[in-house]
Amino acid sequence: MVNIAVLGCGRIGAMHAANVAAHPRTNLEMVFDVNEMAVTNVSNAHQVQAARSAQEVFASDRVQAVLVATATPTHADYIEMAIAAGKPVLCEKPIDLNLERVNRCAEVVSKSTVPIQLGFNRRYDPGHAAAREACLAGKIGDLHQVIITARDPALPPRAYLEEAGGLFRDMTIHDFDLARFMLNEEPVEVFALANALIDPVLGRELGEVDSAMIILRTASGKQCHINNSRTAVYGYDQRVELMGSSGMLISDNRKPHELKHYGAFGVETAEPYQLFFLERYEEAFMASIDGFVNCIENGATPLAGFEDGRRALILAEAAYLSMAEKRIVQVSEIG
Fold first, then answer.
1. pLDDT (tens digit, 9 = 90+) per residue, 66-98?
2. Which member of 217, 234, 308, 335 has the lowest number of beta carbons within 10 Å of its beta carbon?
3. Would residue 305 count as lying in a domain?
């Protein structure tokens, strides 16, 4: 059993704490959050100690590893604190909203052997993982195209959007990572189109977009199309399609059940897709803890490491530049 402390007790932190407590190979040792009510709720729910500070977590001899699910501006600091304490860390994405800060953190990471895993949970999704494995095994011949659809069920609250760092850094960053994972090559060109179509007034006020289409191309010519929307009234839309020289693979959406209704006003009417990421990627989140434990106990390489987080942010910055200048951007242009 690996004793893990969870930093951050908001929505995703509370989920991680519950998963760590329920996982057969981990023990929830301690939790921390600057929000006293949030940390009290989680500590009471699992009967574990609520730390008074992050420093207390990193100094504790009982804590063997940490899971960081705090606000984004703290991620790089906590990664560096974990390295200094010699504690493996699983950190939610993104590493930071500022690429320069990520690059400074990368210098610290490069001098350490402490395992660092990034929270790109979609790599651990059973369907997505099976599609990649089948592609690598040659099931569809040479891979030509990757199509990634990622649409949220509803526009987040204004307060969230004000702090999120923008669509590409907050939402699409998952898709940039998944694109690299599926292509198995680095994109070298990015072209992005984005608008505020769902709430144009809010978009103008925040200087934000809510709907996007992005094209990536690798040096060998492989293509990837990512399409995002902050609102899909039919549920959390998550699909990946791989097109190759001899076939196609699809990792599709999930519904609560597979019942279909046939009647006078419609046929094959079914339930909407699962509500949001907590439901859709439940198995993936637990599998990511498996991967984290394997890194700690067996020296395995993280399926999603620090450099994956840095490269995903670089693609996000390239997409912003493309959107602003209305042109194809070479990824090499981004520092």
1. 999 999 999 999 999 999 999 999 999 999 999
2. 335
3. no
